[in-house]
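Homework help board

Subject: predicted structure for assignment chain

Our instructor gave us this sequence and asked us to write out the predicted structure in C-alpha cell form, then describe one feature. I got the C-alpha cells but I'm not sure how to describe them. Can anyone check?
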Amino acid sequence: MKHSHLKTFLLLLLAFTGHKAIAYDCEVDGIYYDLDNSKETASVTFRDDCYNSYSGAVTIPESITYNGSPYSVTSIGDNAFTFCSGLTEIVSLIEVPFAVSCWDFVNKDIPLYIPKGTKELYQSTEGWKDFFNIIEIEKTGIELLTHDTALKSNGNKTALGIYTLQGVKVADDVERMKELPHGIYIVNGKKLRK
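My C-alpha cell output:
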C-alpha cells in the first residue's frame, strides 16, 4: 500500500511540474517542423505545448534540408503561431501560397515580405490575405545563411569566419551565427544573406 501512494504521488508530481511536451520533428534555422517522410513534405509547427514559439523576424522557406533529405514546405499547422505576439516581420519565400488558419494571435500590421510577382496570390489566399502590410521583394540570388549552408561552405566544420561586407569578423563558429542580425555576410569568400 505504501508503494501505491508513493507511485500515485510521483505520477501527480510529474503531471503538475512544468513539463513541456515537444510538438515537432525537427528544427531548421529556428523554425519547427512536422515531417512527412513518405511525401518528403514539411509543415511549420510550434515548439511545445506552451506555444509562443516565435518572435522577431521569421522566414518561412519553400523547402528545407534535414539530415541530408530535402522536404518541401507545404503547410503551416493550425497552432504554429499561437500566442506569437512578439513577431516583428514574416518573410514567406513560398511562390504559391497555401491556405492557412494560424494567424489568430499575430499582429496583422507587421510586414509580410513575399516573392516579387505573388502579391495577388497572397491577397486572395486564406490567412495570408488578412495582413495589411504585404511587401514584394526581389530574390537576390544570394543564398540564405543557414546552419546547413554555413557548414557546407566550410566543409562541415563548425569553426569558420563570418564577416560583414566591410570585412569585420562578427562570428567564428556556426552556433554563434544565430545571434547575428539579418543582413548579408561573407562566409569563406561567399556572400550569404540571413
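Reply (TA_rk): Your C-alpha cells look well-formed. For the description, you could write something like this. The longest helix spans residues 2-16. That's the kind of observation they're looking for.
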